[in-house]
Amino acid sequence: MNNVVASNSIRFVVLLLVQVVLCNNVNFMGYINPYIYIIFIFLFPIRETRMVLLITSFLLGMLVDMFSDSGGIHAAAAVFLAYSRPVLLKSSFGMLYEHQTIKFSNTDLGSLITYVSFGTLIHHFVLFSLEVFNISSILLILKKTLFSSIFTIILSVLIVILFSRNKK
Predict the structure, then answer these.
(1) Any idea which of 9-13, 40-44, 61-65, 108-112 has the lowest mean pLDDT?
(2) What is the DSSP string of the chain?
(3) Which domains does the chain show, CATH number per domain?
(4) Confidence of residue 166 (pLDDT cuts 50, 70, 90)
(5) What is the pTM of this model?
(6) Which residues cross the membrane (predicted)?
(7) Is the pLDDT of residue 77 over 70?
């Protein structure tokens, strides 16, 4: 059990640092930003209590907000993603989730991409809706969500494949 806690703690700190130091300084064309800190929420252990996931997601989002001076939008989006995670897992992995036998290092690549894609789209839509906070700017919200999501999905899937997959 200590190994799981240690690896998740290291993942938390590394993703937070990479987000704050590197990714927050990336800004293509004014509306394409990668938010890879959500990988922590995606890879959080399935068997862990849901409350622990919600609290750590809030803490992660709040720390990103503190470093980004963004007023709580990352915390809200991260908690929303953590709350909707069981639905995403069930729709992406089906019976593997039902029996709690998902191992992200052994899962089908298509299911992993589906899981990361839907989760990223949900997170980014909530994030940019709170950032813009104006229904008349829905096209801007959708544009930022789409383009940032594409960039984040590509980076997230590559990172998960590089660091979580079994070496064959």
Answers:
(1) 108-112
(2) -HHHHHHHHHHHHHHHHHHHHTGGG--BTTTB---GGGHHHHHS-TTS-HHHHHHHHHHHHHHHHHHHT-TTHHHHHHHHHHHHHHHHHHHHHTHHHHTT---TTTS-HHHHHHHHHHHHHHHHHHHHHHHH--GGGHHHHHHHHHHHHHHHHHHHHHHHHHHHSPP-
(3) 2-164 (1.10.1760)
(4) low
(5) 0.90
(6) 12-44, 73-97, 109-126, 146-164
(7) yes
